Amino acid sequence: MERIIAPSLLSADFGNLNRDIEMINRSNADWFHCDIMDGQFVPNMSFGFPIIEQVKRMAQKPLDVHLMIVDPDRYLERFKEAGADILTVHIEACTHLHRTLQRIKLLGMKAGISLNPHTAVSLLEDIVAEADMVLIMSVNPGFGGQKFIENSYSKISRLREMAEKKNQNLIIQVDGGVDLTNAARLYAAGANALVAGNAVFKASNPEEAIAGLKNA
Description:
Elements: E1 4-7, H1 17-26, E2 32-37, H2 49-58, E3 63-68, H3 76-82, E4 86-90, H4 97-106, E5 110-115, E6 133-137, H5 152-166, E7 171-175, H6 183-189, E8 193-196, H7 198-201, H8 206-214
């Protein structure tokens, strides 16, 4: 499957956001990853609609928006209006996940499901066929720069086995502690979309770092 690299804007320099957006546009990256945090679902807050709209105006690649918020159904239409192309919600935050995914698709976006590190892949058995993407959190969500959780490899492998039976076009994305030391192993486990923050934006040459992740 095609490899997808989605640099996380959470690690960008917000004093020079336009510069960092232009860098991603020039690079081999495929998507812009935007983490939305509300201070309730996760113990941190990030940016909201004005930043998403600013990124959309400059971005030449799709916006991959990850909602780490409670009751995401309240805002599906608003994120579509702001420019989201892929919208991912947490299984832990959705009471009626099937309905939420249907609504995201009806709005014209790709629909993703995210799992926290403690959440079993088996919970996706009856819903994975409805998703365009599943995002495996390989750190506890809420903060950048955390250490990769090793159990994530086996979760990715189990999910890929499930996808082969129920949804062969499923994109498996990994977010948290992703860098050049583990990218190849993540691909081998079955992932095909990697989110990277510090590994890109703290690199001496971010464009080379993106290329390295893509070709690991």
